[in-house]
Design brief:
Elements (H helix, E strand, L loop, with lengths): L1 H5 L6 E5 H18 L2 E7 L5 E5 H18 L8 E10 L3 E8 L27 H11 L5 E4 L5 E8 L6
Parallel strand pairs: 2-4
Antiparallel strand pairs: 1-3, 4-5, 5-7, 6-7
Helix pairs in contact: 2-3, 3-4
Protein name: histidine kinase
GO molecular function, one term: ATP binding
Enzyme class: transferase
Length: 167
């Protein structure tokens, strides 16, 4: 439930399936996505999507990125609104996650600033969502980054180490 995502608690690291969490967050967001006429495309190509992490914290990050993508497309009227969620494995034993939207995009000079505390491009924004998300990903030995998507939109990416076979 969304309520469980907002409770403050110590992280509990267990073996979790990133693909399962992605589907779960999209399910939680389904009515809002439908209301805004936003389609979701999945390119979940990672053969191994298991990580060691805190399920609630990773869900917080995923939900924040999905909500940001939805908000980035709020003013779009001249093209279809869509979110593409992709995963892949890389040689370094990681799972790479990407979420792309067809919103207004981010100015290249802002791609680092958006992770600063209290920095927001939204009128009602607190400027904490991406800061918190970035610190959660760092705690999971990854890095959250953003880049402009051509011809429009933004892509957020992070890579996390795969769960070892020891569990």
């Amino acid at each position: 439930s969304i309520q469980s995502l907002t409770r403050k608690q110590d992280p509990t690291f267990t073996r979790i399936d990133l693909h399962f969490l992605i589907h779960h967050i999209i399910m939680l967001s389904r009515s809002e996505l439908e209301l805004r006429h936003i389609s979701v495309d999945y390119l979940l190509n990672a053969d191994d999507s298991f990580i060691i992490g805190d399920s609630v914290q990773i869900q917080q990050v995923l939900l924040n990125l999905v909500m940001n993508a939805m908000e980035a497309m709020a003013e779009v009227t001249d093209r279809p609104c869509s979110i593409t969620i992709a995963t892949a494995n890389c040689a370094e034993g990681k799972v790479i996650f990407e979420i792309a939207d067809t919103g207004s995009g981010i100015e290249p000079e802002l791609t680092e600033r958006i992770f600063d505390s209290f920095y927001s491009t939204k009128a009602q924004g607190m400027g904490m969502g991406l800061t918190i998300s970035a610190s959660i990903i760092e705690r999971h030995r990854g890095k959250l980054s953003a880049r402009r998507r051509e011809p429009y939109g933004t892509v957020f990416t992070f890579a996390l180490p795969l769960a070892g076979q020891e569990m």
